[in-house]
Design brief:
With 429 residues, the chain is mainly α. The protein contains 17 helices and five strands. 50% of the residues lie in helices and 5% in strands. The structure holds acetyl coenzyme *A. Acetyl coenzyme *A (ACO) binds next to helix 16.
């Protein structure tokens, strides 16, 4: 079977053979298609990258129709069931293989060496208003790290790259917890490096007066699973931002800050916060039909539903739904669970959702767990950004080592004025 595409330009009658690789044609191969020699040549128009692959990647695989998610080939269900530490999965994303015992110990040790932040970071965070949104604090502080580690600019040096990866994965939980403590007016708790990644984070968040904060093992496990589920998701909006900013060869702190800003939006990682606001607003199960009616009339969206890639149940949502019951055994049931289940039941039976293949996504149930665990709603996007940092860094590293990549710079279809002459201010209409 020939592995190419024949294109006939009906404007000129000319025929072109374009090679196919991985079921894809190169957009640049269309540039030869012209009517006149001095034409720019054919481009594709694909707002929001609906059907454009911008990278070749070996990190995360998604089959949205079948509801499959794998990191480096391993199904998300197996990783979330069996990995006892988030750092094991972070290693997998960044190195391509699961670590053996020695590699895992070294990796953990390297990350633990970088969990503390410079005292000036603490002062910087203290400057935020008491009611500053924790995600705003998180983004600004990650960005500020670039000024503490100016050597990070040497992005193509593998040792420098590795060091910033240790620093970022090590420090994001500390910065996140400091943002929370700041908003509560509580003293910051320094990292305790003998704890697990999730355990240390819970300790920095919730320790108050006790000499030794007792971490509930079920909640620690639940947070580890949530971190694993959120660690990467191939070319989503924030990862594309990480790669796009990183393609200018800026340091990874600046790129991560940009990625985190993209994550914050309510159509992306901010959706879990939006889901709880929506459930609060709906209030009771008897209001669900009216809400679904509004959604169908285009008056509102059902937050936590729908996905650009998944046209089936989001496999992360399946794991989270199960996890929710384990967490509620400890914390007591989140009263919004029944409402969420009713909303899901009605939506999944409704033709509008069935026809559009709209299923609950990762954000539909994650917020219910986070809230039951005592995290405030505005902290949810920060909880997403902590593990996703590992994914952003894996994608950034892959991007920098990919010889196909250059600075990201899309084309446009210009539809504005042609050339026109400047008019003095008094003569303008
Ligand atoms: N509620 C109601 N209708 C929806 C929803 C929703 N949540 N999502 C999509 N639709 C409808 C659209 O109106 C559209 O209908 P139409 O064909 O009649 O115009 C159709 O389904 C297709 O939707 P698009 O907006 O074209 O899908 P897209 O891939 O651009 O958007 C997105 C995906 C942004 C996730 C969207 O589903 C959405 O806004 N969901 C709610 C926010 C959310 O939960 N975001 C979290 C995503 S997961 C994550 O980022 C971690």
């Amino acid at each position: 079977m020939p592995n190419n595409l024949t294109i006939i330009d009906n404007r000129t009658g000319k025929k072109y053979e374009v090679p196919i690789e991985h079921d894809t044609i190169k957009a640049m191969d269309l540039r030869q298609i012209k009517v006149k020699d001095d034409d720019f040549g054919m481009m594709t128009y694909d707002p929001a990258f609906m059907n454009t692959a911008s990278v070749k990647s070996k990190i995360t695989f998604i089959d949205g129709d079948k509801g499959i998610l794998r990191y480096r080939g391993y199904p998300i269900e197996q990783l979330s069931e069996n990995c006892t530490s988030f750092l094991e999965v972070a290693y997998l994303l960044l190195h391509g293989e699961l670590p053996n015992r020695t590699d895992l110990d070294d990796w953990r040790q390297n990350i633990k060496l970088h969990t503390y932040v410079h005292e000036n970071i603490k002062k910087l965070m203290e400057a935020f208003r008491y009611d500053a949104h924790p995600m705003g604090m998180f983004i600004s502080t990650i960005s500020a790290l670039s000024t503490f580690y100016p050597e990070a600019k040497d992005i193509l040096n593998p040792d420098v790259q590795r060091k910033q990866i240790f620093r970022l994965i090590g420090k994001v939980p500390t910065i996140a917890a400091f943002a929370y403590r700041h908003s509560k007016g509580m003293p910051y708790i320094y990292p305790e490096n003998e704890l697990t990644y999730a355990g240390n984070f819970l300790n920095m968040m919730f320790k108050i007066g006790e000499a030794k904060y007792k971490i509930n093992p079920i909640l620690e496990h639940a947070l580890t699973v949530l971190f694993i589920l959120h660690a990467d998701h191939e070319q989503n909006c924030s990862t594309n931002t990480m790669r796009g900013i990183g393609s200018s060869h800026i340091d990874p702190y600046s790129a991560c800050a940009g990625a985190a800003a993209a994550l914050w939006g309510p159509l992306h990682g901010g959706a879990n916060e939006a889901v709880l606001h929506m459930l609060d607003e709906i209030g009771s199960a008897d209001k669900v039909p009216a809400v679904v009616k509004d959604v169908k009339e285009g008056k509102r969206k059902l937050m936590g539903f729908g996905h650009r890639v998944y046209k089936n149940y989001d496999p992360r949502a399946q794991v989270i739904k199960k996890l929710a019951y384990e967490v509620f055994e400890v914390t007591g049931k989140n009263p919004k669970l029944d409402l969420a289940l009713e909303l899901e039941r009605i939506a999944l039976e409704d033709d509008y959702f069935v026809k559009r293949k709209l299923y609950p996504n990762v954000d539909f149930y994650s917020g219910l767990i986070y809230q039951a665990m005592g995290f405030p709603m505005d902290f949810f996007p920060v909880l997403f950004a902590i593990p996703r940092t590992a994914g952003w860094l894996a994608q950034w590293q892959e991007h920098l080592s990919d010889p196909d990549q250059k600075i990201a710079r899309p084309r446009q279809i210009f539809l504005g004025y042609g050339e026109r002459n400047w008019v003095p201010v008094d003569k303008r209409k």
